[in-house]
């Protein structure tokens, strides 16, 4: 049987880190088994679902590269199918109309809680029986699933292991509301059945729904899929991950300069392991992933580790891959790369020093944009009168260069040092500040090479003018 998994978000907000991890695990398992992955938008909650959230989820999935083989399906387009099956259950007496008013239910609920009982629907309560008996043809009603009264529901969760729940613990669930809309627990079963889902991977917050859903599968005569419930993600302080901990939306990670590959690698390890391996290419993740190795205990989010992975991928991923995502940040900052070196060359030169694409975009700026001021601290320290001779001699040599190569620029610096009988720093640092505007950069000959002759000459002249002005004001 072909393995088929799904990701089934409710579109009530952006795609958050927890959802993305669930999606990744589902996706990986499908790929690992050579199966298929379905995207389904669970939008039956008409009040809380928005088109904006749907778009945000799709954008997040696309940015992560978690592509789907089928869908996106929308539950709101499948109401006829749910109603058809609800009618079937009604006809088979596996579901029934309940006229019990909301107010009465609330009253009974409070009574049960006051008595220290678990609140649940009690069809045999005299007041409920009376309310149902008093109902007329046009009284509003919900439809409840007739949960079995005897026996237990048993399943082997791929993560949590053997689970057993007595039916006596479960009440008769509403499957259609008064307004005619079917409810989550019913729709999810019909969808997973109709879509041929073989493994349901989802968050632990749904584990209490699973026995109820299994009873609905049985009532419909549908095969029950396997389940894998993933533990929670905690913030670094041990409480459930939330906005308080910083970014939780996947797209915010894009905005903060992470590569999707780094986030995916981070998420795969957040609750799944393969020995103590930390770095996984997509191919490796697919090859090694198994539901059985998902952790039972919650995992804590660690931003430092994510940054470390991001730096790793900025350094080691194909420059073309990094360039694709860097370009977005360059555009955000209005850095036009038309006049200047290839972005991939800048990545190769500057990338390893950067933890995020935002830093990398900032460090790319001087290759493409002229500046009108030097960084104050660096200028104060390195653009001093004593640097004048070094800059002037280097400038003369740069202007005379016939061939613009890193080797020749290296020679320019070495010869300047030799002729002035000064150390490397006395020439290299003023040149670095002159050419980049700042005190830190990769090797200055390589930087000059990529900044280009015209810009290098103009910037050294600007540094000399800066020194002259400083002298005049002294
Ligand atoms: N729509 C549910 C949610 O977003 C997930 C349901 C499921 O995976 O079964 O929490």
TrEMBL record:
Primary location: cytoplasm
Domain Aminoacyl-tRNA synthetase class I anticodon-binding: 323-464
CDD domains attached to this UniProt entry: GluRS_core
Residue span of motif 'KMSKS' region: 240-244
Catalytic reactions of this protein: tRNA(Glu) + L-glutamate + ATP = L-glutamyl-tRNA(Glu) + AMP + diphosphate
Domain named Glutamyl/glutaminyl-tRNA synthetase class Ib catalytic: residues: 3-308
Top-level taxon of the source organism: Bacteria
Cellular component aspect of the GO annotation: cytosol
EC number(s) reported in the record: 6.1.1.17
Entry-linked SUPFAM superfamilies: An anticodon-binding domain of class I aminoacyl-tRNA synthetases, Nucleotidylyl transferase
Summary of the function given for this chain in its UniProt record: Catalyzes the attachment of glutamate to tRNA(Glu) in a two-step reaction: glutamate is first activated by ATP to form Glu-AMP and then transferred to the acceptor end of tRNA(Glu).
Family: Belongs to the class-I aminoacyl-tRNA synthetase family. Glutamate--tRNA ligase type 1 subfamily.
The protein, known as: Glutamate--tRNA ligase
Source species taxonomy: Bacteria, Pseudomonadati, Pseudomonadota, Gammaproteobacteria, Vibrionales
């Amino acid at each position: 049987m072909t393995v088929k998994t799904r990701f089934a978000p409710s579109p009530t907000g952006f795609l958050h880190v927890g959802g993305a991890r669930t999606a990744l695990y589902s996706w990986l398992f499908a790929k690992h088994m050579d199966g298929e992955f379905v995207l389904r938008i669970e939008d039956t909650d008409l009040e809380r679902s928005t088109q904006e959230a749907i778009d945000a989820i799709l954008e997040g999935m696309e940015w992560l590269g978690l592509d789907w083989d089928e869908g996106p399906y929308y539950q709101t387009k499948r109401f006829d199918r749910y109603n058809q099956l609800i009618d079937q259950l009604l006809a088979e007496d596996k579901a029934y109309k309940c006229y019990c008013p909301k107010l009465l239910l609330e009253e009974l609920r409070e009574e049960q809680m006051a008595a220290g009982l678990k609140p649940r629907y009690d069809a045999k309560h005299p007041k409920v029986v009376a309310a149902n008996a008093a109902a007329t043809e046009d009284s509003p009603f919900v439809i409840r699933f007739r949960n079995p009264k005897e026996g237990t529901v048993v399943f082997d969760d791929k993560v949590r292991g053997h689970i057993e729940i007595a039916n006596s613990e479960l009440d008769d669930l509403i499957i259609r509301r008064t307004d005619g809309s079917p409810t989550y627990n019913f729709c999810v079963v019909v969808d997973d059945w109709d879509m041929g889902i073989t493994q349901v991977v989802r968050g632990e917050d749904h584990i209490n729904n699973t026995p109820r859903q299994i009873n609905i599968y049985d009532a419909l005569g549908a095969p029950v899929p396997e389940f894998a419930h993933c533990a929670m993600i905690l913030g670094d302080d041990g409480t459930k991950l939330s906005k308080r901990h910083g970014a939780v939306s996947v797209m915010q990670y894009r905005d903060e300069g992470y590569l999707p590959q780094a986030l995916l690698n981070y998420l795969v390890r957040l609750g799944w392991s393969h020995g103590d391996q930390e770095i996984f290419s997509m191919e490796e993740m697919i090859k090694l992933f198994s539901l059985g190795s998902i952790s039972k205990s919650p995992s804590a989010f660690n931003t430092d580790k994510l940054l470390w992975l991001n730096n790793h991928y900025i350094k080691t991923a194909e420059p073309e891959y990094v360039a694709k995502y860097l370009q977005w940040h360059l555009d955000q900052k209005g850095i036009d790369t038309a006049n200047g070196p290839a972005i991939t060359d800048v990545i190769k030169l500057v990338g390893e020093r950067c933890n995020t694409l935002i830093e990398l975009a900032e460090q790319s700026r001087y290759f493409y944009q002229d500046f009108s001021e030097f960084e104050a601290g660096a200028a104060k320290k390195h653009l001093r009168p004593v640097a004048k001779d070094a800059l002037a001699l280097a400038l003369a040599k740069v202007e005379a260069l016939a061939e613009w190569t890193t080797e020749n620029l290296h020679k320019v610096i070495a010869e300047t040092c030799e002729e002035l009988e000064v150390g490397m720093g006395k020439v290299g640092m003023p040149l670095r500040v002159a050419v980049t505007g700042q005190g830190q950069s990769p090797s200055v000959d390589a930087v000059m090479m990529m900044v280009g002759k015209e810009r290098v000459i103009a910037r050294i002249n600007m540094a000399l003018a800066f020194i002259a002005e400083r002298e005049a004001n002294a």
